Amino acid sequence: MAKTLYLMRHGETLFNRLHKIQGACDSPLTERGIADAKQVGDYFRRAQITFDHAYCSTQERASDTLELVTDQPYERLKGIKEWGFGVFEAESEVLNPKPDPVRRSHGDFFLQYGGESDLQVQARVVKTLTEIMERPNHQQVLAVSHGGASFMFLRKWLSMDEIERRGIVLHNCAVLKYRYEAGQFQFDEVIDWSARPTAQIN
Questions:
Q1: Which residues does the annotation place in the binding site for substrate?
Q2: Where is substrate bound in this sequence (predicted)?
Q3: Residue range 51-57: average pLDDT?
């Protein structure tokens, strides 16, 4: 029987608003980030979506987001933390390199500056989320992670051409739904919680 993973990006942070590179470093959620996370929690309650287990990365912006979505117990995991950008941490996003033309991502660029490659990030996130879904009694799981980490996970299961064709964008608080069975994830949808007629900022 297929299991379900809801993989969520954390809410907007101060560094997101200031367009700073934010990987291993952290910054607090903004008022919008807090409000959006509460809206996601409201969506899950209205849709009667419950989780038997919840997880987040070890970074504060992820745990703060999760605590706004649900009050259930959770576990923090290093394996789903954000991409490490080395000496580029907290610098302006204008310093990000152009995408590698073959891998269509940052590729190995950040390795030379003490960071991670795209494939390293992808491998640890895939390993961690697979191990989670293989645990007993894990039928419907929520995991709060980050933009880069979540995108590289998505790239494992969908080609870049397919991602662009579907117009998938991982905004803050985006929720990606996957089905998991026999060691494989199948992307289902990006849940558009903000399009609900009853949505309110509070």
A1: 9-16, 61
A2: 9-16, 61
A3: 98
Give the CATH number for residue 62. 3.40.50.1240
Listed residue (186, 160, 191, 156) closest to 173, CA to CA: 191
Answer for the pair 38, 200: CB distance below 8 angstroms, yes or no: no
Yes or no: say if 177 and 4 are a contact pair by the CB < 8 Å rule: yes
Q: How many residues does the chain have?
A: 202
Annotated binding site: 9-16, 61
pLDDT at 193 > cutoff 90: no
**Beta bridge partner(s), residue 190:** 176
In this predicted structure, the answer to whether residue 144 has a pLDDT above a threshold of 90 is: yes
Nearest to 12 by CA among 30, 24, 27: 30
Domains in the chain: how many in total? 1
Global pTM value:
0.94
Q: One-letter amino acid identity for 94?
A: V
Check pLDDT > 70 for residue 123.
Answer: yes
